[in-house]
Write a structure and sequence with these properties.
Layout (H helix, E strand, L loop, with lengths): L6 H7 L2 H22 L4 H10 L4 H11 L2 H13 L12 H37 L4 E6 L2 E7 H26 L1 E2 L13 H10 L3 E2 L10 H28 L6 E2 L19 H22 L10 H30 L1 E2 L1 H8 L8 H10 L4 H18 L3 H6 L2 H4 L4 H7 L9 H9 L1
Parallel strand pairs: 3-4
Antiparallel strand pairs: 1-2, 5-6
Helix pairs in contact: 1-11, 2-3, 2-6, 2-8, 4-5, 6-7, 6-11, 7-9, 7-18, 9-10, 9-11, 10-11, 13-14
C-alpha cells in the first residue's frame, strides 16, 4: 500500500500499476485460502507466491484482443507463473476482483483525505485562536446583524470539519467491504471461507450478502460523503469570496510577488483559489448523483455502473484531496484586515444595539410589540438620516422614561456581544 502524503500519492493510488498490484494481491490471497481448503497444492501456491507478476504494457496488448481487462490481466500473470496459473482466479468472477479492489483503492484514498482534513483542522484552530477577539459585524441575508468575532467564524468552520471528519471515517469504514461470492453471489464454486480469508488479510469486511457485485448503495454513500465534505469547503470559500469584495475588504487571499489578477486590468487581485473550489464542488455533487444512479442495476448485475466508477473513483477522491489541500494553504496564508472589520462595523452607526434596547424595554414593563415599534422607529430614522442610533434613542422620551442615559451608554457597548466567546471556544475545542 502507498503511504505518502501528497497529491502525487493520490495519483499513484489510481495508477494502472497500483490497480493491478491490488488485483494481484486479491488473486494470490484467494489461492492461499484455496490451499488451506486443499484445492490448490502447496507447491503450486509457493510457485504462485514467488512468480506472480504482471506487465502493464502486456495487459494492454492482450486487452486489445480480448476486450476484457480481467482476462487480459490473468493472462499476463499466467505468462509469469506458468502451469500453476490454472489455480489463479479459480472459482472467481471478474467482479470479485474488481469490486474488492475498488473498495481497497477507495480505502487508501480515504486515508489521504482524512490526513487532509486533519491538516485543515489544525490551520482553522490556529486562525480561530489568533482572531478569537477580532470583532467584526455578523451578517444575515447579507445585511449587518450583530457583532461576532472572526475567531468565532473560524471556530464554526473547525466544528463543521470535525463533523466532516467523522463522516469521512464512517464512509471509509462503510466502503471497506469485499466480496468473493462468485458469479451470482451463491458461493457455488468457493465456500464463504475464501471470501472471509481474503477480506481479513486485506483489511476488509466480507459483504453479508452480495450478487455478482457489492450493492451500489455502499458506493453511493461514499461518494455522497465526498460531495457533502466538498459542500462545506465550498461554503467556506464562498464566504472568503464575499469578504474579499472591494466593498467589504475584510480578508483577502494571499497575492504572491509577480502574480497577475487580470490580463486587462493590472490592479486586480481576485479570489481565484476560492472560485476554483466553488467550481470543483459542483463536480463532486455531479459525481455523487452518478453514484446514486448506479444503485439500480438489472437483476444480479449489469455493467452500467462500471464505466461511471472508472471515472468518479479517481476523479472524486482526487478532486476532494486537491480542494482540501488548496483550501488549507489558502487559510494558512489568508490575510485578515481587522481595521476594515472595525470600519465596516461602524457603517450601521450602532444599529446592532437595537435588540439590546428592545429586550431591556420588555424587562421594564413594555410589551414586546410596543418595544419593537419604538426601537424600530428610531433605527429606521437613524438609517435614513445617516446618524448615530444611540443619539436617536437618547432623545426618545418613551425610551428614556424606562432606561436612563447612563444605562443606554452602558448598553451600547460591544462587550456583551463577546462575553461568551470563551464559553463557545471551550465547547468547540475542549
Amino acid at each position: 500500500m502507498i503511504d505518502r502524503y501528497s497529491r502525487e500519492c493520490m495519483r499513484d493510488i489510481w495508477s494502472e500499476e497500483n490497480k493491478y498490484t491490488t488485483w494481484l494481491a486479491i488473486e494470490v490471497k484467494a489461492c492461499e485460502a484455496l490451499c488451506e481448503l486443499g484445492t490448490v497444492p502447496k507447491e503450486a501456491l509457493a510457485n504462485i507466491q514467488k512468480k506472480a507478476a504482471f506487465d502493464v504494457k502486456r495487459i494492454a496488448e492482450i486487452e486489445e484482443v480480448t476486450r476484457h481487462d480481467v482476462i487480459a490481466f490473468t493472462t499476463s500473470v499466467a505468462e509469469y507463473v506458468g502451469e500453476d496459473s490454472r489455480y489463479i482466479h479459480w472459482g472467481l468472477t471478474s467482479s470479485d476482483v474488481l469490486d474488492t479492489s475498488f473498495s481497497m483503492l477507495l480505502k487508501e484514498a480515504s486515508g489521504i483525505i482524512l490526513k487532509d482534513i486533519d491538516e485543515l483542522l489544525a490551520v482553522l484552530k490556529d486562525r480561530a485562536f489568533e482572531h478569537k477577539l477580532t470583532v467584526m459585524i455578523g451578517r444575515s441575508h447579507g445585511i449587518h446583524a450583530e457583532p461576532i468575532t472572526f475567531g468565532l467564524k473560524m471556530a464554526l468552520w473547525y466544528d463543521e470539519m470535525l463533523r466532516q471528519r467523522e463522516r469521512m471515517q464512517r464512509a471509509m469504514d462503510a466502503i471497506s467491504v469485499g466480496k468473493l461470492s462468485g458469479a451470482v453471489g451463491t458461493f457455488a464454486h468457493n465456500p464463504p471461507f475464501v471470501e472471509e480469508y481474503v477480506c481479513r488479510e486485506l483489511g476488509l469486511k466480507p459483504a453479508s450478502i452480495s450478487t455478482q457485485v457489492i450493492q451500489r448503495d455502499v458506493y453511493a454513500e461514499f461518494f455522497t460523503t465526498l460531495a457533502v465534505i466538498g459542500a462545506s469547503i465550498e461554503k467556506f470559500a464562498v464566504e472568503i469570496r464575499h469578504l474579499q469584495r472591494t466593498e467589504v475588504s475584510e480578508v483577502s487571499e494571499y497575492f504572491s510577488a509577480g502574480q497577475k489578477g487580470s490580463s486587462a486590468m493590472p490592479h486586480k487581485k481576485n479570489p481565484i483559489l476560492s472560485e476554483n473550489i466553488s467550481g470543483l464542488a459542483r463536480l463532486l455533487r455531479g459525481n455523487a448523483l452518478a453514484a446514486i444512479e448506479n444503485v439500480a442495476l438489472w437483476h444480479e448485475r449489469d455493467i452500467s455502473h462500471s464505466s461511471v466508477e472508472r471515472v468518479i473513483g479517481p476523479d472524486s477522491t482526487t478532486l476532494l484531496d486537491f480542494m482540501l489541500v488548496r483550501f488549507t494553504g489558502l487559510m494558512r496564508k489568508l490575510i485578515v484586515y481587522p481595521e476594515s472589520m472595525q470600519k465596516n462595523l461602524e457603517l450601521s452607526r450602532g444599529l446592532y444595539y437595537s435588540q439590546k434596547i428592545l429586550l431591556e424595554l420588555t424587562l421594564r414593563g413594555i410589551s414586546r410589540e410596543d418595544a419593537y415599534r419604538i426601537v424600530q422607529r428610531n433605527a429606521l430614522a437613524a438609517w435614513d438620516q445617516k446618524k448615530d442610533f444611540k443619539a436617536f434613542i437618547l432623545q426618545d422620551s418613551e425610551i428614556t422614561a424606562k432606561i436612563t442615559p447612563q444605562e443606554i451608554e452602558e448598553f451600547c457597548s460591544n462587550d456583551f456581544f463577546t462575553a461568551h466567546v470563551d464559553d463557545i471556544f471551550k465547547r468547540v475545542f475542549d
